[in-house]
C-alpha cells in the first residue's frame, strides 16, 4: 500500500511538467513568425546578400519601343518678320501720346501727335505753288487767246504753256509732300497725327510727352503681331544630329506645364556659341494668346527611328543623390545595386529606362523598401 501511495504523487508531478511545457510553447507568437532577413554586405559595396531573398518581391524588366528623345530649354521671342516699326517722316516735338508700351492696338488707331516745322514749311511751299499755278494759268489763257488772233508768235504761246505745266507739277509735288508728312493739303495744320500701320501689341516705345522725334530716326513705337511667335532654343553641338529642319517639337511653358503646344523647326543656327558650344534653333509656334515674350519653355523632340528601351515599375527605381538606381537580382541570389538612366513615365505606373538595364532582367519591385532594410 505504501508503494502505491508513493507512485501516485510522482505520476501527477510528471504530467504537470509536461502540460506546463506544452502551454508555454503554444502561447509564444514570436516562435511561429519567419526569421528576419539578415543583410550581409559583400566586399563590393553595391553587392548585397540577404538570408531570405524570397521576402522581397521581384519584377522582370520588359521591352518598350520608343523614339529617341531630346529635351532642350528655350524662351519665347517675337517673330521678327511680324515686327512693324512706326515711322514718322516729320521732325518735331511730341504734343500728345495716345498709346503706351504693352497696349494692344488696331490698324489705323491714333498713336501720337507731333508738332512739326517741316509741315509748316511744306504748307508754305504748297500755297506758293498754288499761287504760281494760278498766275501761270491766267497767262496761258491770255497767250492762247492772243495766239488764236495772231497777235503773238507760236514761241511765246509755247513758253506760256510750259510755264503752266511746270506750275501744275509744282502744285502736285508740294501736295504729295504734305501727304507723305501725314497732313491734308486742304486742311492746313502744323500738327501731324501718327497712326498704327498694323494691328498688334506695342513691344517697344522710344518716345514720351514733349520728346523730340527725327524724320526717319529712331522709331517712336514698334508693333508686333504675336499671333505667331518664335521659340528660340540652345542645342548642344553633340545633339545637333538629332534635330532637322521641319521637325515637330512639343512645347511646354513653365507657367502652364499641363498644356502642350506644337511647333516646327524653321532654322538651325550656322554658328556655335564659342563658350557654351551650342547653336540657336528657332521654332515657329502659333500663339493661342497665353504666350508672353520672354517666357521660359521646354521643347521636346522625338527621333524618326524607333529604339528598344526597358520598362519597369516606377517603384523599382531608387532616386538617390540625383541619380537613379535599381537592385538587380543575380544568379547567386544576391542583389546588385546598378545605376540606370531613367526616362519618361509610362501608363500603368511604369517608367522607361533609357540605359543601364536590359529587358528580361529581374529587379527588386520596391527599391525604397529594400534600401531601408539595408540601412537598418
Describe what you observe in this structure.
- It is a single chain.
- The two termini are 67 Å apart.
- By secondary structure, the protein is of the alpha+beta class.
- The strands form 4 sheets. It has a 6-stranded antiparallel β-barrel with strand order 4-13-16-15-14-17.
- The chain folds into 4 domains: 96 residues, conserved putative lor/sdh protein from methanococcus maripaludis s2 fold (Beta Barrel); 91 residues, Efflux pump adaptor protein, beta barrel domain (Elongation Factor Tu (Ef-tu), domain 3, Beta Barrel), CATH 2.40.30.170; 56 residues, OB fold (Dihydrolipoamide Acetyltransferase, E2P); 73 residues, Helix Hairpins (Orthogonal Bundle), CATH 1.10.287.
Tell me, what's the shape?
rod-shaped
- Let me know the average pLDDT: 85
| Count of discrete alpha- or pi-helical segments spanning 4 or more residues | 4
Please tell me the CATH architecture of the largest domain by its name: Beta Barrel
Taking the sheet with the most strands, its summary is: 6 strands, antiparallel, barrel
Order of helices and strands: HEEEEEEEEHHEEEEEEEEEEEEEEH
Write down the domain tally: 4
The overall strand count is 22
Structural class from helices and strands? alpha+beta
CATH class of the largest domain: Mainly Beta
Widest beta sheet: strand line-up: 4-13-16-15-14-17
Helix content: 25-40%
The name of the CATH topology of the largest domain is conserved putative lor/sdh protein from methanococcus maripaludis s2 fold
Query: What's the alpha carbon Rg, rounded to whole Å?
Result: 45 Å
Percent of residues in beta strands? Answer: 35-45%
The end-to-end distance, rounded to whole angstroms, is 67 Å
Low-confidence stretches: 1-27
